[in-house]
Amino acid sequence: MQKYIDLGWNTVPLKGKLERLEGGAKTLPIFEKNWRDKYEKVTNNNATAIGGAITGRCSGIIAIDCDNTNTWDIFRALDVDNKMVFLSKGKGYKAGTLIYAYDDDLPSSFSIQDNNFALDFYSNRGFIYLATAGNKTKVPLAEVSQPPSLPPAVKALLLQLSIKQKPAESAVSNVFTASCLNPLVTELLKRNKYMPGLFKIITPKDFRSVAQYVAKGHLHPNDVPAGRGSEYMSKVSAILGSDISIDETMYMEAMVTINEMFSKPMQSGRLEKTILDPMLTRHASIDGVPIWKYEDNWDAHRLIIQSKRQAALDIGFDDHRNMYYVVDEINQEFKSFARDSELMAFIEAVAVAHPSKKEVKCSVPMLNVKSDPSETFGFHEGADPTARDLNTFIQTPELAILRDPEIYEAKYTKPLLTIKYMETLIPDPVMRNYVTSFIKTKLTTFKYSPVILYFIGKHGSGKDLFVSLLEKMMGSMGRPTVKEFLEVYNGYMLDSYFVQLDEYGNQLTNQRDKDEALGKIKAYTGKPKIRVREMRTDGFDYYHHVTFIMTANKNPLMIEDGDRRVTLINTPNVLADAMWIEAAGGMSDVHDRIMEESKDWAYYLATEVPALNMTDYMRAYESEDKLKLIADSLYAAGRIAFCIKHCMFDYLVDMCDDYECPDVGRAFSNRHVTLDDLFILYAEMTDHNGEQRSLTKVIKTHGIQIRPTSKDGVKSYNITLPEENPFEADE
Question: Which among 398, 605, 656, 730 has the fewest CB atoms less than 10 Å away?
């Protein structure tokens, strides 16, 4: 590739192989992330075996890619002298790419695919593969030189063809990024019966508020509202017609099959005239642009196998995560594999006929995998022209309601049982309102927050029921064991939005493990970017959205003084003891009924619970319960100073009673405390082993003032107490 670098072109280094497969398709080499933006501005000096070039003003070149014999013959006849020609190899017919000097008068990149021409024209920001020795799809050039200027005849033809153009910034962008329904439609035609997975995808957006779609997540044509059948068929036609993998025959057969699913189908003559003909004659358009998008090489960079269960499995590889993915769009399922041996074992077990390991590695397409609740499950167009986006998140009905409560409005019944349960679980109305608002904000924005929800209370208070309800609404919940959490592998963080840490304080038996667990929690909640590593894989940087939910009955992991992440939620009641439980049918019935109210609870959150502003969403709610837990974890001097600093005078009075210092307790009650009083309490707390100077030092460190006074010649030291309880305003 050095010859092209020396010409000053904006070249792009590539890895992998670039070979011609049986049938004319090419293997896909490996592109860097954001390669176009990078190498359009930065000169590449890495002379790899295979590579490409960005066309346009940056490189000073344009390219005419002729993909059939007729197009090739016409352009070569107009200019037989051009030596900067990349001849195609292995196609079985004459084809190639003609390189010319950049010309400002020509239009942007465009593509022509009709009965006469098969042509892709690349100008600004286009991309071509270079004819290098490593590129087995092109004939290498013996001599490389700057390309000639466009002959007038070639320029005139390009200008004429551009009038009938369809935009094509990159010839590969469609095949790589478009959603391809061919496997699903093939299965539909094979089965000749309704397929919920397919109809979840092809149901037009305007019909997703229909009750049956809301309830099931898919819509049978018989459930289309009366009088809207033609509208439905027209919009389904647009979805199939705009799919690059659906050819004319498949389109017609699919539309006829869908039409016949109606109990009263559209008459065939009307179907042909109003739906099929406009699409097939390319008259159906949006803003003057034809809807029809079929590409005959759509599967050149797709790896699809048929399973023994008659499902189409789409295979891809995410080079950031270093994971293989096998996707079943019909059933909305996916599997991931860290090793190619594991992938091949799976393929060999489930496939009717399967490619070899070499074929898989050469032809597996690139993916950008994400878990985005705002998008539907499956493949989507993305910004990267070298890889499709794969969204692995499967939206629950509850999240759909939270996003758009109007779809459930007619069915809504106020979730009285769930509301009563929340009142019992979290009696403090201020804290309860914060928790519900936090959950509403999380389930509608899915944004990162460092806040940890720490539920601490009696066994049987209903903490696990809260987690189960949240899991049903989300669809999943990470639950690492203590052993898993302490290990180097943290795959449970990947694509998770909630992770429960249950009774960690009770299960961690030594201080070293407790410190390690607290350190991990700090690291994960301190910033959204973390290092994720699954077993048998290298780690990679990942922006997480996890909210930790910690639950404990006793022996909680202690919270540090100065903590700004933990919201401590006191759950003091035993749920089964609540008087309303028996009237509601007992605990078992209550649990089931609350889970059944999940959709109503989602609507309630969406319509009656305010979201938090981002400031409150990003910081923990401070409470007296949290301060008490922190105080309990401190040693004597630190506990005394901490309680004074935070105006925890009732706590101090109780502590004085515990240590049989009633006079000191009365001093705190009267808000007149001396240093000698503190020494008395400190001595009792330390079995008279504590040093007074240590206490004095800690008190000063906490910013508490010690004021010397003298009365009747006797010198003493008064403690300046804070004037206000910071929580009085909340009570």
Answer: 730
Pick from 247, 598, 246: which is nearest to 397 by CA? 598
Listed in sequence order, the residues at least 6 apart from 358 whose beta carbon sits closer than 8 Å to its beta carbon are none
Mean pLDDT of 113-129: 82
Which domains are assigned to the chain? Answer: 2-169 (3.30.2250), 177-290 (no CATH), 302-395 (no CATH), 402-624 (3.40.50.300), 634-730 (no CATH)
List strand residue ranges (DSSP E) for 562-697, in order: 566-571
**pLDDT score at 178:** 53
Per DSSP, helices labelled H in 285-415 are: 340-350, 357-363, 397-403
pLDDT at residue 685 in the model: 94
State the amino acid at position 677 in one-letter form: D
pLDDT digits (tens, 9 = 90+) for 367-390: 999 999 888 888 887 777 778 889
Sheet of strand 367-370: strand arrangement: 367-370, 388-391, 378-380
Give the CA distances from residue 686 to residues 435, 644, 689, 691, 695, in Å, rounded to whole numbers and listed in that order: 39, 18, 5, 9, 11
pLDDT tens by residue, 585-611: 999 999 999 999 999 999 999 999 999
DSSP 33-98: TTHHHHHTTS------SEEEEE-BTTTTEEEEEE-SHHHHHHHHHH-S----EEEB-SSSS--EEE
Tokens 């649990």 correspond to what residue?
A: 591
What pLDDT does 168 receive? 39
pLDDT at 221: 96
Residue 304 or 12, more confident? 12
In terms of Cβ atoms closer than 10 Å to its own Cβ (0-12, 13-18, 19+), residue 456 is buried
Q: At what angle do helices 662-669 and 675-685 cross, to 10 degrees?
A: 130
Our CA dihedral for 559, 561, 564, 566, rounded to 10 degrees, sits at 20
Q: What is the spatial distance between Cα 282 and Cα 113, in angstroms, rounded to a whole number?
A: 13
Gap between the Cα atoms of 400 and 10, Å rounded: 46
Angle between helix axes 416-425 and 587-596 (nearest 10 degrees) is 120
- Distance between CA atoms of residues 493 and 616, nearest Å: 24
Contact 482, 517 (CB under 8 A): yes
Q: Tokens 């779809």 correspond to what residue? A: 407
pLDDT in tens, 613-653: 999 999 999 888 888 888 988 899 999 999 999 999 999 99
